[in-house]
Design a protein that fits this description.
- This protein is mostly helical and 284 residues long.
- Helix 7 packs across helix 16, helix 9 crosses helix 10 and helix 9 packs across helix 12.
- The relative contact order is 0.13.
- It has a single domain, classed as Hypothetical protein af1432.
- It has 16 helices and no strands.
- The chain is globular and about 55 Å long.
């Protein structure tokens, strides 16, 4: 029996096939350049669960705001529309995964590793003084979405890929490429393209194993590449298999020194539990 094509995998992802209508309604307002603060706050408030989580994020140590944020209109002013849009997208995708049909232990591992990667990526982007560091958080959160999608659409392919990776001591993406001609990063990029997300999110996901080959978003892809490797070393989620090799050109591109890695790891570990509590629930 032939293996499924990338297009067949993407078409068979069920709950991941499209972002919900509630997201599109909110996004239409947040993406409008002329939207007022009150219009943006009203759009976010239309989803009570989302608005509550955004307020908790705004008051989390991640932002370190000097004053407590009580209303979404304050969050729009203090954090920014683009940043809130990224965070709203993150919460929406977490809902799709957490409320989906995947196995609970796999969902938990995915969310732990992905959230940690997003936090580490955000910390790294902050040190580089990148603009809108929340997009790095979201890219990290989404970076392994393709692997989760492959388990939904073709679980037998995931099992076969892992067996090959174990037998040949290969990173999982190389086993997937050997079997299928594509890997989970390509699947994730295709899903995000289907969702009509921008290249600043699509490319870091699609190229996080080969960031120096990214067409236009090499800094973003390099940040997520390094963040994913760092969180794997920390043992946060992941499949526990052979690690992806470090792309040395990406390391050079970022200009990070080895002594900067440990403080970001400490920051990530401290923030992970509270952020999972916000995104998934305090029982996470």
């Amino acid at each position: 029996m032939p293996h499924p094509t990338l297009e067949q995998i993407v078409a068979g992802t069920g709950e991941l096939s499209a972002l919900p209508d509630s997201w599109h309604r909110i996004d239409a307002v947040l993406a409008h350049a002329a939207a007022t603060t009150s219009q943006i706050a009203d759009a976010l408030t239309s989803d009570p669960g989302l608005s509550a989580r955004l307020l908790r994020m705004a008051n989390s140590p991640m932002f370190g705001l000097a004053q407590r944020v009580e209303k979404l209109s304050q969050a729009v002013h203090l954090i920014g529309t683009r940043q809130l849009r990224e965070l709203a997208l993150a919460a929406t995708v977490v809902d799709l995964v957490a409320g989906g049909s995947g196995r609970k232990e796999r969902i938990d591992a995915f969310l732990h590793h992905s959230t940690a990667t997003g936090l580490y990526g955000r910390a790294l982007a902050s040190r580089r003084r990148e603009a809108n560091v929340e997009r790095f958080f979201v890219a990290g959160l989404l970076h392994d979405l393709g692997g989760y999608a492959m388990e939904l659409a073709a679980p037998e392919v995931t099992v076969e890929s892992r067996r090959l990776a174990s037998a040949k001591a290969l990173p999982i993406e190389r086993a997937e490429q050997a079997l299928l001609g594509y890997d989970h990063a390509a699947v994730g990029g295709a899903i995000l393209t289907r969702w009509r997300l921008p290249p600043s999110l699509v490319e870091p996901v699609a190229w996080h194993h080969q960031p120096s080959a990214a067409p236009t978003q090499r800094i973003e892809a390099a940040v997520i590449h390094l963040a994913s490797l760092a969180t794997s070393v920390l043992g946060i989620g992941g499949d526990g298999g052979v690690a992806t090799p470090l792309d040395l050109r990406a390391w050079e591109l970022l200009g990070i020194t080895p002594d900067e890695l440990s403080p970001m790891a400490t920051e990530t570990e401290a923030a992970l539990g509270p952020m999972l509590g916000i995104l998934v629930g305090d029982g996470a």
